[in-house]
Amino acid sequence: MRRKRSISKKQLLRRSVPINDYIREPSLRVLTEENEVLGILSRSQALDKAKELGHDLVLIAPKAVPPVAKIIDFNKYLYQLAKRSKGEKKGKTETKELKISLFMAEHDLERVKGRAAQFLKNGNQVRISLWLKGRELGKKEQAKAFLYLFLSGIKSSKIVTEPVMHGKVLRAVISIDKGQHAEAKNQEIN
C-alpha cells in the first residue's frame, strides 16, 4: 500500500499560481516589484524582461483584461501573500459560545465564568446561552435576573448585546472592557 503524501500550503500555492513558462496568456499587463507599470507586453517580452531583472514572472490577476503579471521573486510573492492573509485574520474577533442552565451547581458556574474570562483575555467575544426546558420556560424573568447576575461575576467584561429570548434560549454577548482590563493590568504591575 502506498502512503499518501501531505502537501504543504506553500506547495499548494506553487501549483495554483502560474509563473514563468506556465503562463499561457498571449499578452500581459506587466508590473515591476515596486508596482510600476511597464505596460502591456507579449508573453515572450515579459519573460525576457523578468530574466533580465533576475526574477520570476508571476500571474497575479488572471481574470483582468489583459491579465496582470508581476516581475518579482516567487518566494517573496508567497511571503507577501502569507503576511497579507495573516494580517486579515488578526483583525477579526471570534465569538465563542458557552451554555449554562438555570439550575447549575455553583462550582460549574465558576468553571464557566473562568472559561469566559479566558476567552475574553484572548480577545474573543463570548455568547452566553441560558437554555430553558419544560417548566423553566415560565420563569423567564428569573432566568434574565440569573443571567445578569452571572454576567456581573465575570471581571473586566461589558455587555455587547443585552439578554434576549431566542425560542427557548436566553442569549447575551459580552466582550472585554478595555478600560477595566487596562486598570487591572496596571494594578498587577504595581
Q: Helix coverage percent of residues?
A: 40-55%
Which stretches of 5+ consecutive residues score pLDDT under 50? none
Cross-sheet strand order for the largest sheet:
2-1-4-3
Question: What is the CATH topology descriptor of the largest domain?
Answer: Translation Initiation Factor IF3
DSSP strand tally: 8
Query: What is the domain total for the residues?
Result: 2
Amount of beta strand? 25-35%
* The CATH architecture of the largest domain: 2-Layer Sandwich
Quickly give the structural class.
alpha/beta
Straight-line distance between termini: 63 Å
CATH class of the largest domain: Alpha Beta
> How large, in whole angstroms, is the Cα Rg?
28 Å
The largest sheet is: 4 strands, mixed
Order of helices and strands: HEEHEEHEHEHEEH
Shape: elongated
How much is the average pLDDT?
Answer: 83
Question: What's the topology here?
Answer:
Elements: H1 9-16, E1 27-31, E2 37-42, H2 43-53, E3 56-61, E4 68-72, H3 74-91, E5 95-101, H4 106-121, E6 125-131, H5 140-152, E7 157-166, E8 169-176, H6 178-189
Parallel strand pairs: 1-4, 5-6
Antiparallel strand pairs: 1-2, 3-4, 6-8, 7-8
